[in-house]
Design goal:
This protein has 11 helices and 13 strands. By secondary structure, it is of the alpha/beta class. It folds into 2 domains: about 230 residues, Type I PLP-dependent aspartate aminotransferase-like (Major domain) (Aspartate Aminotransferase, domain 2), CATH 3.40.640.10; about 130 residues, Aspartate Aminotransferase, domain 1 (Alpha-Beta Complex). The structure holds pyridoxal-5'-phosphate.
Amino acid sequence: MIPILDLTRQYRFLKRELDEAIADVLASGQYINGPNVVAFETEMARYIGTEHAVALNSGTDALHLALRALDIGPGDEVITTPFTFVATTEAIGMVGATPVFVDIDPLTYNLDPAEIAAAISPRTRAILPVHLYGLPAAMDEIMVIAGRHHLAVVEDCAQAIGARIDHRRVGSIGTIGAFSFFPSKNLGAYGDGGMVTTSDAGLAMRIRALRSHGGQVKYHHDELGVNSRLDEIQAAILRVKLPYLDEWITGRRANAACYNVALDALESVDTPYEPANTQHVYHQYTVRVHADRDHIAARLRDRGIQTMVYYPIPLHLQKVHGELGYGFGDFPQAERAASEVLSLPMYPELDDDDRQNVVDALNDALSLAHS
Ligand SMILES: Cc1ncc(COP(=O)(O)O)c(C=O)c1O
């Protein structure tokens, strides 16, 4: 069986360091707001290239508290993509604002900047691009539009930690970056975790207060906040892993390059696109299949290869967003992607044999589909 992701290989590689770091926290007696959280915030801010980083309980909370800190609420609109995980729009709903969808660019699967201007209304407060699968959205174009209309930009970096446009890492380009450390992410904890990054000191301070019941000082509560802390054990684990992240990205990119060479020859498969000035971090290696995608996925499963569809139903067609009034046909590129994309096994430790098995099985499945 070749799984889409195998986290046990990474654990085996880091076992000694991780076990030691966890044992140190357990022995310290300090499990919340301890030195590992503080140090991890500093290390992440340096890695991403922002002045501040605030550790939180999840990527969903990172998006939610970013919007809260920007004072986005009922009556406000936030422009985003319909082709993402539901947490993106959940966060918009959590602050009482309304998601306004814009279709994706079929090459990148990210927000199509050419479609954004038409969606801006007097109620628009922010643009929320998602760097889907690990590929940065068209941030230069998005920042120009946001600047022209005085809009905040919240980057959903959950899938794209370490990805770059030129030398700038995602999470340092918009007003605020939101990260997830869910275990399967490229930098994953062994539980939930998240973070915001920003170079705006006021926003960072506000998010620090919001994550801790709405107060700067213990037992002094200025507004309704939440409990959204990254715990000390997860911070210690993430501190062990962060120094390896760039190496893992290199491994993912090498695997993607090998997949590309093997699959580019296939007419019925489009391999992932990477603009020239952009570094994709291949959280997912996702191809577009011009054949019966679900049938191909079933054939791969029969050969012991796990694949996934991220995401089979675009958000504008999800029941949860029914009241927004969108219908089928509103975002044709997102709808087409939802029926054609297929993510193949991808992790830094994937070896030549695994990769070859995936390529052979995909080849065979496609030839059968066309015969
Ligand atoms: C695009 C996107 N946004 C937000 C999230 C939410 O992150 P978390 O699971 O840490 O709440 C995820 C993670 O699953 C995601 O993929």
